[in-house]
């Protein structure tokens, strides 16, 4: 948004979420102006992530969502998951955290709320706290699903989300096309076509969980 406010002529290529709702572009197909890029499905994937964590922890009747209230998509993510939780007949608690101390307080409340599984929303601040989040999930023995595979590589249980490598490659392709003379207004904003399901079996064992064969068969990577 700062770059958009700074110039209406210098081309801008972004990786981000919900660019239409946030006023970056007019539409995905015809972005208009000087901005194009790749839009992550930050809201739409959360019901699928709920489905996956409930498959891994079928006994969980209460789940929690950790969300940063400062994220522009926070309320839309909450609404999408509330609908999905009702459909699955599980109770959903919303934990809002915008600081490291609030993250800690949110995890500390899990036992009192009798939460059986946790969804961590996609968020740049959470990414900067990745090691802290994974350590807290281990300390409180809560099965958690994350947005990016990097959390699982750091010791998290499971993740489901777009491929960052594919998205960054597309940003580079667009930057190259613009440098060769094409206009951002003529380049449709891309959406992810590659999604990654990553599972950490070592973490599952530490939590006393047996990951269903149906999950392992679909996983893009299983960390042992």
What does this structure look like?
The protein folds into 2 domains: 2-41 and 162-193, 3-Layer(aba) Sandwich (Rossmann fold), CATH 3.40.50.2300; 46-159 and 196-223, 3-Layer(aba) Sandwich (Rossmann fold). The termini are far apart. The strands form 2 sheets. Strands 4-3-5-6-7-8-9 form a 7-stranded mixed beta sheet, sandwiched between helices. A two-stranded parallel ribbon has the order 1-2. Helix content is 41%, strand content 20%. It is built from 11 helices and 9 strands. By secondary structure, it is α/β, with parallel strands linked by helices.
What is the fold's blueprint, element by element?
Elements: H1 2-6, E1 12-17, E2 35-40, H2 46-56, E3 62-67, H3 74-88, E4 91-96, H4 100-108, H5 110-113, E5 117-120, H6 124-128, H7 130-139, E6 144-146, H8 149-153, E7 158-162, H9 164-179, E8 195-200, H10 201-206, H11 213-218, E9 221-223
Helix pairs in contact: 2-3, 4-7
DSSP summary: helix tally: 11
Tell me the CATH architecture of the largest domain.
3-Layer(aba) Sandwich
Query: Rg from C-alpha positions?
Result: 19 Å
CATH superfamily of the largest domain: Response regulator
Outline the biggest β-sheet: 7 strands, mixed
CATH level 1 name of the largest domain: Alpha Beta
- How many structurally independent domains? 2
β content, as a range? Answer: 15-25%
- Physical arrangement of strands within the biggest beta sheet: 4-3-5-6-7-8-9
Assign the structural class, choosing from mainly alpha, mainly beta, alpha/beta, alpha+beta, or little secondary structure: alpha/beta
Could you tell me how far the N terminus lies from the C terminus, measured between alpha carbons in angstroms? 41 Å
Please report the total strand number as a whole number.
Answer: 9
The name of the CATH topology of the largest domain is: Rossmann fold
- Roughly how much helix do the residues carry, as a percent range? 40-55%
Average pLDDT, rounded to a whole number, is: 94
């Amino acid at each position: 948004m700062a770059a958009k406010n700074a110039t209406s002529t210098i081309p801008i290529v972004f990786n981000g979420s919900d660019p239409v709702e946030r006023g970056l572009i007019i539409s995905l197909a015809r972005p208009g102006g000087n901005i194009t890029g790749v839009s992550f499905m930050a809201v739409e994937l959360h019901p699928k992530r709920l489905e996956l964590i409930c498959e891994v922890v079928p006994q969980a009747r209460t789940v929690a969502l950790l969300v940063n209230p400062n994220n522009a998509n926070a309320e839309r993510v909450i609404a999408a998951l509330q609908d999905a939780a009702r459909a699955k007949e599980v109770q959903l608690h919303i934990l809002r955290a915008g600081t490291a101390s609030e993250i800690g307080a949110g995890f500390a409340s899990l036992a009192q709320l009798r939460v059986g599984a946790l969804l961590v929303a996609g968020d740049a601040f959470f990414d900067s706290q990745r090691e802290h989040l994974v350590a807290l999930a281990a300390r409180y023995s809560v099965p958690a699903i994350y947005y990016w595979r990097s959390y699982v590589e750091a010791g998290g249980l499971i993740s489901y989300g777009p491929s960052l490598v594919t998205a960054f490659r597309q940003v580079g392709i667009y930057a190259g096309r613009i440098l060769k003379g094409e206009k951002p207004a003529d380049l449709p904003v891309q959406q992810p076509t590659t999604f990654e399901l990553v599972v950490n079996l070592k973490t599952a064992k530490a939590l006393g969980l047996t990951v269903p064969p149906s999950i392992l068969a679909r996983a893009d990577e299983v960390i042992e």
